[in-house]
Amino acid sequence: MMEDLNHTLFYLLNATPASPQWLIHFATWAAKDLIVVAPLLVVALWLWGPRRHVGQQRVMVMKTALALIFSVALSWTLGQLFPHDRPFVEGVGYNFLHHAPDYSYPSDHGTVIFTFALAFLCWHRLWSGVLMGAVALLVAWSRVYLGVHWPLDMLGGLLVGMVACLAAQMCWHHAGAFIAQMALRAYRICFALPIRKGWVRD
Where are the domains of the chain? Predict the structure, then answer.
């Protein structure tokens, strides 16, 4: 039942040789490069911002880092427990993006970008969460469109991201003060010169 749904959705989304070249190029960019936006935004939130908001921003960054640790670990575990071949390995549809023939479920890209999107939604602002959610959907679409993932791989990444954000929130509730203290201490040691110069926030 689920495999039938997976195949049906894949055929609806997957590009073909008749697809516009500009759309394939756009999808390739989205599949490979768009995900970089998320970590760059998180780094910027840590380093800069209004002084009255930077503390809250850094809490968000630390929670996001925790969520990513949980999501990557859970994604790897699920991949070992429920291995699933990629569409091009099974000879299904068309492939327009070179990729190693490793297991596809859940999608690593989907897991990471959905974790970022959910982190922004839960711990930053509604508008930024919605914006990052749109980015996540675009990345998810592009990797199915180009034939390197199944739609349910992306759903798996979303679910893993949800569980990881919940786990990060629970972890922060119990150990957040200690984590923040250690992270800020390490930051102030490593970035002592830029902080002193005023290039980044203390």
Answer: 2-14+36-197
Burial tier of 156 (Cβ tally within 10 Å: 0-12, 13-18, 19+):
buried
* 202 residues of the chain, pLDDT tens digit each: 788 899 999 999 999 999 999 999 999 999 999 999 999 999 999 999 888 999 999 999 999 999 999 999 999 999 999 888 999 999 899 999 998 888 899 999 999 999 999 999 999 999 999 999 999 999 999 999 999 999 999 999 999 999 999 999 999 999 999 999 999 999 999 999 999 999 999 8
Strand runs labelled E in the chain:
none
Select from 1.10.20, 2.60.40, 1.20.144, 2.30.30 the CATH code of 2-14+36-197: 1.20.144
The structure tokens listed for 36 are 């970089």
